[in-house]
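User: Hey, quick favor. My workstation is busy. Could you predict this chain's structure for me?
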Amino acid sequence: MLGTTLADRYKITKALGSGGFSKTFLANDLRQNKRRCIVKQLQTESDDVFTVKTSRRLFATEVKVLRRLGSYDQIPQLFDDFEEDQEFFLVEQYIEGNNLKQELGWRRWSEAKVIAFLQDVLTILAYVHQRRVIHRDLKPANLIRRKKDKKLVLIDFGAVKNKRRIAQTVVIGTDGYMPSEQSIGRPNFSSDIYAVGIIAIQALTGIDPTKGKLSFNPKTGEIDWRRSASVSPLLGDIIDKMVRYDFRQRYPTAKEALEAVKELSSEVPSMERRQLLQTAASWGVGLLGVSLAYGAFTQKWLFPSANTLIKQLFGQAEPNSEEKS
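Assistant: No problem, here it is.
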């Protein structure tokens, strides 16, 4: 396939991977100044009638859904779809960046970064849900951190489901990110919310849910994750609601979850200061030491690093007029 030109236009330059019902390639569009794009080729792992029929339906669904979602900035744009030599292809926008699977492999995220992540991905998902679409395969590998602006882009709509046709479905998803109702072929909007919550837990704890290391409360059946993370009660409660075992107890759509996170976002500065205070205490500074350090720095007695810490702790606040007098 490498070096092949499809539809007299798309020259394949690199194989990116395969999975589900398709192979994915990087290509240059020879009619658009060699613009890079993604080419997906329908591929079935079996020749049985059910598999072939299902794969073609899912492939066609991806085309229809990408068209319906239009030119939303954080979803790849559909450029083309065609049939050649009895093979089916679609062409979509190439997003330069790294997926979150790579990003999560380094270290645990701060609480502020997790909140920013939730706002970003839930904003995309709210747009998707408003158009009656369930993604069904939200996972770190399907979220790309776009290089040019660091925004998240949601990819791989091959597993999507139209809410109106939910009764005729097959089980699609990724173990660890897939809730119980989806595992029996009954996904709903809150199934996507569950997956986002699991990614947040992974970011805070460093635990990969695909490896079965998350523990569960034997009495409630809920995920027992807070012992492995440093998290405020407010954010913890939101994530807990996102990953409830019973989908009726979760946020029904991304819009409601996003509203809860936005209310929480006003608490971010205070949470960051609290975390810095805890860090200072762990260094043996303590509140008295911090106060002395602040006073000392105003007389330029301390090192620049202390200045950075103090400004973060106190929001660069200057003494008020009464204190100056």
